[in-house]
Design brief:
By secondary structure, the chain is α+β, with helices and mostly antiparallel strands. It has three domains: 95 residues; 188 residues, OB fold (Dihydrolipoamide Acetyltransferase, E2P) (Beta Barrel), CATH 2.40.50; 31 residues, no CATH class. The chain contains nine helices and seven strands, in the order ααββααβββααββααα.
Amino acid sequence: MADCQKHFFCVPASDYKPVKAATLALASLIFMVASGAVGFTLGGIVGGALWIAAVFDLCHYLHGGKLICHKKKVCAIGSVAKEHPVGSDKSGLEKMDDDFTFDLIISPHAAVETKSDMISTDPNQGKLIEDRPGPLGIGLEYDGVSVTFPGINDENYVETEVLHCEIKGCRVHDVCIVLKVMSFPTAAAAVWCSIPIIGWISCSVALLVAAIITLVVGGIVWAATHNGALSDVMDPNAGDLVPADNKGQGGDIVLVRGDWVYDAGHAGWNEIQPVRYAQKLTIPDKFHGAAKASAALVADFKREVLDPWCYESGKTEDPLVIENQKRPENRWHIHPSIDGCREQPVIK
């Protein structure tokens, strides 16, 4: 079990900036070459600084600069529509994304419902899949995430909008540590390149050595990293997730807690990333989404399931609970009578 989630964050829409790493890296290369050609040391320094900025910009973007916050510590409940094992839909450098992901049909809705159905009847969780003003206000588009169930034979059927959930792996964080550290000797070599003739030769060797070290160490870290896993956020004894059948029914009901964000790293959609806590639930059959949910059913679901379960699962984040857990009599491993914990008298 690893807490890779702690390395990731989201930013307000006002702080979102598209990734500039490629532009900075290209500018760095231009400065390096031009400075080496004319022996302009200051240009080499600028080129090295731009290279460092490119690496740090890329890592900031991957760690959360691409995630626009809607709200932190959000609780959502839904049925598992589909799961995506680590790397199952990735290739090439995309495999740096080592997250375990799954999609939820927000409860108590059914696979036959469209996005508009869910939003119109559900003032509670419907907002999780609708367009939000923050990203739209800065020119980003909302595409959404949908799942099609081939077993539903309805000519009027439209793909079901789902809530995407991501359990983060540590690869981005671990590889970025290597890239950040190695950006400094690489930048130093760039400065050395600005010295005519002698600098060109020695800097070429230095850059080659830096590249080899980066590739070797980065490769080792890449291979050894912790992939995102369900057990990172859910009791391992709960087993694997059971997704819905080809009619969109039978998927595990799961509660997730995490940051509700817009992910600008692709076409753009809302999701829970990172998921910081997950739990399987057993709820009454009437909330399993076998048919379109009415407003009355949604209200019952809120009262009987959503509110009580979200409240109970959120107690660990309550400041009073956190403070109470620090008391000596509550810091035991087996039981106070065995561990010998006793409340200490207050000395006045």
